[in-house]
Amino acid sequence: MNISSKHHRKLNSAITRRVIELHSKGYDQDFMMQTNRLLCIQNNEDFAASAVQIRVVDQGYDHVDGCFKYIHTIDTFNGQKGVLIADGIFTNAVIH
User: Residue ranges of the domains in the chain?
Assistant: First the structure.
């Protein structure tokens, strides 16, 4: 394995480690953004992006997609907490 491959692995595994850490802190649901709405992947529950608290907590470079990924935490009104990984920065339905 060359140095470049080792470096890529470390950066991609850094994203994975951060997500695992957040899951262990109670952010155990996974979300995806769908046109100003968030979908919980585990239970298919749908939330308006403006009705949840979205925080950017970390970023990492994804060598597979060739772009930065931003890790967000999601807190819902009904107590569900989870993680959103996206190409952009989201704060309650606003991309920066």
Answer: 3-95
